[in-house]
Amino acid sequence: MTNSEKFTPWTTRYRPETRAAQGDGWRGPDTGAVPPPVSLAATYARDAEYRLPGGLAYLRDQGGPGYEQVENVVAGLEGGAGALVFSSGMAAATAVFQVLPGGSRVVVPRTMYFGLTKWLTEFGPQRGLEVVHVPMDDLDAVAAAVSAAPTALVWAESPANPTWTVTDVAAVGEIAHRAGALFGVDNTVPTPVHSRPFELGADVVMHSGTKYLNGHTDVVAGFLVLAPERTEARATLWERLQLHRRLTGPLLGPLETYLLMRGIRTLFPRMRQISATAQALAEHFAAHPLVSRVAYPGLPTDPGHTVAARQMTGGFSGMLSLHVAGDWQRSLRVAQHCRLFIRATSLGGVESLIEHRYTFEGPDSTAPKDMVRLSIGLENPADLVADLEEALERAAKEDR
Ligand SMILES: *Cc1c(COP(=O)(O)O)cnc(C)c1O
User: Fold this and answer.
1) Which of 61, 71, 59, 52 is nearest to 254 (CA)?
2) Which residue, 16, 314, 334, 379, is most buried by CB atoms nearer than 10 A?
């Protein structure tokens, strides 16, 4: 029996928005506290019969009382069979690669979250992984890479950080499955509000909970979610992932788990407003003389728009990149001149951020030099437009 059943008749048939807002109806087990209390216990006492009264033994093994709630809610939002919470998005993503059999071949996007590319480069070969990088928006290239040799896993991220290149998730999933490979999708940027990768064939979905799920720039967290229909390969993968988390301990702390659940409650209204503002900004700056191109899948002129419109619903999330006209240093100065956009890395919070990715990533970076990446928050769109226009003008004036 879940805590909720004692207090409220709760059903998982409620829509995802309802499940998020009420945290699946969970209550403090004794008091009915809304929201549930935080337990910091790392270990649990056995009774005189040497039984564990609540089934919990040790924090690293099973988590604590608040964990099942956040995992069930995120599994529910994705339409998955279950979820595991991790201490970061990277802990979640690398778990998938770490539990593959030694010698596995993996096909990953050439453009994706920088940290995962870096981990695969630094540690992949050393762990016996053969890592093949492909342009995931080129289905012929994906098919060629996957059929060239037995492949254990195909990984996708759409739209992909930081160029917002769109991948046809269903088509890549089909290619992966035809070759007997597992298919993992990083759904951090679209969130389950705009995209549900299990409906497009994913076996496992990954999130950086640090970003939109938490949404308040004060928690680092991650998730893996398992596809709803059971297959032998999925069951084996999930068992290995559960065991990996138990034995290596990349589990989120109880306080952060509480904060994360609080953030998730407002995911839907945040995403709706953030995506609407991002769309408005993308349209505004696409027509701006000091901007050479706006990368945003919500623009009808964006190369990924047709596919994105097919696989995303209700918006295109809050990430866009501006390619600034003029020589590339001007884009860096645009970031320097912003007053409202905060010059900071990360994404998905309530406050808008601007970042010159090339400078952040350093000389190995494949990020276009003339590009600033924007993470749109909940500010008034007119204030954001005015801030960027002023920064663009000032940066351009310095070149005259
Ligand atoms: C931030 C991010 C990650 C890594 O998550 P952390 O919580 O920072 O470890 C992975 N994928 C994407 C798309 C991200 O934006």
Assistant:
1) 59
2) 334
Check residue 1 and give its pLDDT: 39
Query: CA nearest 118: which of 138, 93, 142?
Result: 93
What separation in angstroms does the CA of 267 have from each of 35, 166, 214, 360?
Answer: 16, 23, 8, 28
Q: Say yes or no: CB of residue 256 within 6 Å of ligand 1.
A: no
Q: How many CA atoms lie within 13 A of 233 on its CB side?
A: 17
In this predicted model, what pLDDT tens digit does every residue of 210-229 receive, in sequence order?
999 999 999 999 999 999 99
209 Cα nearest atom in ligand 1: 7
Nearest CA to ligand 1 atom 4: 89
Residue 277 near ligand 1, beta carbon < 6 Å: no
At 103-154, the pLDDT tens digits run 999 999 999 999 999 999 999 999 999 999 999 999 999 999 999 999 999 9
Mean pLDDT of 332-344: 98
- Give the CATH number for residue 81: 3.40.640.10
Q: How many domains, in total, are found in the chain?
A: 2
Q: Whose CA is nearest to atom 6 of ligand 1?
A: 89
Let me know whether 375 and 236 are in one domain. no
Gap between the Cα atoms of 35 and 365, Å rounded: 43
Domain ranges, residue 332: 267-397
Pocket test of ligand 1: the residue of 86, 87, 113, 251 to mutate, having most ligand atoms within 8 Å of its CB, is 113
Query: pLDDT tens across 260-278, in order?
Result: 999 999 999 999 999 999 9
Pocket lining: 71 vs ligand 1, CB cutoff 6 Å: no
Q: Identify whether residues 175 and 228 lie together within a single domain.
A: yes
Do 250 and 365 share a domain, yes or no? no
Identify which of 386, 289, 304 has the alpha carbon closest to the alpha carbon of residue 339: 386
| 248 plus 287 within the same structural domain | no
Residue 318: which CATH number? 3.90.1150.10
According to the model, what pLDDT value does residue 28 have? 82
Q: Indicate yes or no: pTM above 0.70.
A: yes
